[in-house]
Write a structure and sequence with these properties.
Layout (H helix, E strand, L loop, with lengths): L12 H12 L3 H10 L5 H8 L13 E9 L2 E8 L5 H13 L5 E4 L3 E9 L4 H18 L1 H9 L3 E9 L7 E9 L6 H21 L5 H4 L2 E8 L6 E9 L11 H17 L1 H21 L4 H12 L9 E6 L2 E9 L13 H9 L5 H24 L4 H15 L4 H13 L4 H13 L1
Antiparallel strand pairs: 1-2, 3-8, 4-6, 4-7, 5-6, 8-10, 9-10
Helix pairs in contact: 1-2, 4-13, 5-7, 9-10, 10-11, 10-13, 14-16
The structure holds (R)-mevalonate.
The site of (R)-mevalonate has 9 residues, from α10 and α13.
Length: 439
């Protein structure tokens, strides 16, 4: 059966599901039933989700969990997290509780500027281009007034526009490099609309500029798009306490713990193979809150990893030190987030998450996300440098194995009892359940 199809998007939802079920499944009826079992019984709610993207056939669930007791700048937050990895929420909650008794997380928004660029080709006299740019610069602001009026009322707008010469990289390549303040919105649509107007203004003004030759008048726009590398939209989160305060049941010697912890961070600073995993641990927390609040996690991921390489080598996003007996652990993250616009007012669970966070502004959300990332990193490093990561991880993963085997309540109880005394591994859990069933 051919799997090529034209006009798929024109089919009704039921026809799309039929096509997939008939082309890819031995039991099409079962496949259809599965896909439909994830539909919401509230038809309006389902329609809302169907309309988020094209060719929707079903919903894909991820769990939403809650990490309470985040003390951030003296305020207690209850943090909603959307993630599939079993130990992440528990680790965040544990870290949050640990630091709540030691002054909590201190966070600072360092800046909130976003960037967008019009990439274009100009073959001609660079000096003339510079003079032309200075002359028409006010027009970029004037021509975008219908787009910027509302943003300006909210205290945002276009901050500056520069002409950047990139012609040593690619012959004739120049940019309009613009900076924006988008307040509580992530601002992607606002920025892209402004940039497309800048491109239009640039092209039209050039075509009419008497100072240019016929060739120079023909500016070729390549593309106009925001940059997700938000180096001017950065938040810092940190925790600190006296070294002696770094105690719990797995930390018998706080000085030895601090030393080992700092060495683990230093390894991530100098060794990219470790840095990627170290930063992945930070993103476990970051992505989970970014997703719960309806923000663009791909944009955040792209920005954060580029930032981790900003000094020429991929490195740790977090740092740690002991100075004068004080342990300090901190990170800086570039985070372009919104708490208005986009999914924030559409997705009922995003509204729920933002309400649990007491309707934060975008800068406040940056701080919550950064604190969660730092908490996650602390939890991972604490486990790695003390008990090892598998103990906690497998404890949480045991549930998944039990579910996979459709374990009964009695079996679950016996498995839990058994693994209180024995090391958990996937194979050990499977063997034990099978042996229970044989007997
Ligand atoms: C697992 O999702 C994350 C960790 O690997 C992070 C780390 O190694 O720091 C535990």
């Amino acid at each position: 059966m051919t799997k090529e199809i034209s006009g798929f998007s024109k089919l009704s939802k039921a026809e799309k599901i039929d096509w997939i079920a008939n082309h890819y499944f031995e039991s099409p009826e079962e496949a259809k039933a599965l896909v439909k079992s994830y539909w919401n019984s509230d038809v309006k709610l389902q329609q809302l989700h169907d309309d988020f993207i094209e060719n929707t056939v079903s919903n894909f669930y991820l769990p939403m969990g809650i990490a309470p007791n985040f003390n951030i700048n003296g305020k207690t937050y209850t943090v909603p997290m959307v993630i599939e990895e079993s130990s992440v929420v528990a680790a965040a909650a544990k870290s949050a509780k640990f630091w709540a008794t030691k002054g909590g997380f201190k966070t600072t928004v360092l800046n909130t500027e976003k960037i967008g660029q019009v990439h274009f080709i100009f073959t001609g006299d660079k000096e003339k281009l510079q003079g032309f740019f200075q002359l028409i610069k006010p027009n970029f602001f004037y021509d975008t007034e219908p787009l910027t009026a509302n943003m300006q009322k909210r205290g945002g707008g276009i901050l500056d526009i520069e002409l950047r010469d990139k012609s040593t990289d690619i012959p004739g390549y120049f940019q309009l490099h613009a900076t924006f303040e988008t307040k509580d919105s992530m601002g992607a649509n606002f920025i892209n609309s402004c940039l497309e107007q800048f491109a239009k203004t640039l092209k039209e003004e050039a075509a009419e500029y008497d100072g240019f030759s016929a060739e120079e008048k023909n500016i070729r726009i390549v593309m106009s798009i925001l940059s997700n590398f938000v180096t001017g939209c950065v938040v810092r989160a940190e925790v600190s306490c006296k070294v002696e305060e770094l105690t719990d049941k797995n930390i018998p010697d706080p000085h030895a713990f601090a030393e080992k912890f700092i060495t683990a961070v230093k390894i991530a600073e100098v060794e990219p193979y470790r840095a990627v995993t170290h930063n992945k641990g930070i993103m476990n927390g970051v992505d989970a809150v970014v997703l719960a609040t309806g923000n663009d996690f791909r944009a955040v991921e792209a920005a954060v990893h580029a930032y981790a390489s900003k000094d020429g080598r991929y490195s740790s996003l977090s740092h740690a030190e002991v100075t004068d007996g004080i342990f300090r652990f901190w990170l800086d993250l570039p985070l372009a987030l919104g708490t208005v616009g986009g999914l924030t007012s559409l997705h009922p669970l995003v509204k729920f998450a933002l309400t649990v966070l007491e309707k934060p502004s975008a800068p406040e959300l940056m701080q919550i996300v950064a604190a969660t990332g730092l908490a996650q990193n602390f939890a991972a490093l604490r486990s790695l440098t003390t008990t090892g990561i598998q103990e906690g991880h497998m404890k949480m993963h045991l549930n998944n194995i039990l579910n996979q085997f459709g374990a009964t309540d009695v079996e679950r109880e016996m498995v839990r009892k058994h693994f209180k005394k024995h090391a958990i591994s996937h194979a050990a859990a499977v063997n034990y359940i099978e042996s229970l069933r044989k007997n």
